[in-house]
Structures are given as C-alpha cells and as structure tokens.
Specification:
The protein is an all-beta fold. The chain contains no helices and 11 strands. Strands 2, 4, 5, 6, 9, 10 and 11 form a 7-stranded mixed beta sheet that branches. Strands 1-3-8-7 form a 4-stranded antiparallel beta sheet, with no helix packed on it.
C-alpha cells in the first residue's frame, strides 16, 4: 500500500506564498506521476498540477499557471507545490495523488486517473 502525506498548508494573506509537500511511502512506490488537486467548499475537486517523476515534465491548470510551481525530489519520493501570488479563490483543501499504473499526460487532469490520495491540507487565503 502507498501512503501520501501532505504538509505545509496554512493561512496566508492575498499575494503571499506557501509551499506544500507530499511525501510518498509504502512497500513499493514506483508511480509514474504525481498530481495535486484541490477542493473548495461546495465545489468539485479540481486539478491543480502534475509532474512526471522520470523527466520532471510539469502540467498546470490555467488558473494557477504562472503562479504555482510543481517540483519533485526523486531521492525523497517527495513532490512540492510552490504557490505564489495567492488569491482568495485559491482557498481549498489541497491533496496530492498518485496512480497505481503508468498514466500519460493527457490523463493527468482527471481524478479517476489516480488511485492513492493523501488526507489533504487546508490552504486559506485572506483578502
């Protein structure tokens, strides 16, 4: 079984920054990619960013492009989400996710592509 643990959430003023971390562990962890999703109250979970472990190729939702940066540390099995220029509409519970099998960039955006999920970390941006 794979375990994903997020950290780094909190309360920040608009325009500020936060960095989220997602540490993966388990008997065998060899996922092809990692994704970040978020869910605001009353809204569906939405894609934020994803990264391919082997190449570092990254993918972003239009709403965060240019403000968020996803990166990974292969040695630590950890993925990061650097969030800059935060806006009140970025307020949500952020969760990382990993697929059991290889997935491709065209499917990174879908929650159904992922099998393992972290418990989530709250990010609140005040105006």
């Amino acid at each position: 079984q794979v375990q994903l643990v997020e950290s780094g959430g909190g309360l920040v003023q608009a325009g500020g920054s936060l960095r989220l971390s997602c540490a993966a562990s388990g008997r065998t962890f060899s996922s092809s990619a990692m994704g970040w999703f978020r869910q605001a109250p009353g809204r569906e979970r939405e894609f934020v960013a994803a990264i391919r472990w082997s190449t570092g190729d990254s993918y972003y939702a239009n709403s965060v492009k240019g403000r968020f940066i996803i990166s990974r540390d292969n040695a630590k099995n950890t993925v990061y989400l650097q969030m800059n220029s935060l806006k009140p509409e970025d307020t949500a519970v952020y969760s990382c996710a990993a697929p059991r099998n290889t997935i491709y960039s065209t499917t990174y955006y879908y929650t159904s592509s992922y099998d393992y999920w972290g418990q989530g970390t709250q990010v609140t941006v005040s105006s």
